[in-house]
Amino acid sequence: MERFEIKRVGPQEVEVVHDILRQCGEDMKERFGLMHWIPPYPLHLLRQSAQEKRVYAVYDTEQAIATFTLGDQAPSYYAQLDNIWESEQARALYLNRLAVLPRVQGQGIGSWCLEHIEQLASEEQYEAIRFDACARHVKLLEFYQKASYHQKGFFVISTPARGENEIVCFEKVL
Hints:
By secondary structure, the chain is of the alpha+beta class. About 30% of the residues lie in helices and about 35% in strands. The chain has helices at about 15-30, 45-50, 110-125, 140-145; strands spanning about 5-10, 55-60, 65-70, 90-100, 130-135, 150-160, 165-174. About 25% of the residues are buried. The model has no long low-confidence stretch (mean pLDDT about 95).
């Protein structure tokens, strides 16, 4: 029996995911002084993601405890990157907003999510998984490296809501 259940979330069901992202943003601010998820990802954009990509919630019995989003297209801000990937032509799956509720972090849920994302990518014949993370979230960077994801490049993103943040790009070739 599976430890957790993954359910795809539609545009009208994203509130549960939005709440996970909000709680994670508040936790990162409190524990690490990181503001890149404050304010939380806008609800209307999350609804749009659920239409254009695959937004998932991870459940432990009836409680949503984690979320992630998968898509076929690189985020538009990756256009500023030049030749950082192992193979620029590889069919890649792009991961966004992997988040685990703060009260259950450290229990292997993030690793479990990555394993299932990798399994899904392999089944769908993707050749790589790519994503980015805040460079100042050292604990998170270590988590991804331990899971055999490789740092491939850096860039700075600046938005009115979140200010300027250095971003690390990660990739795992499957």
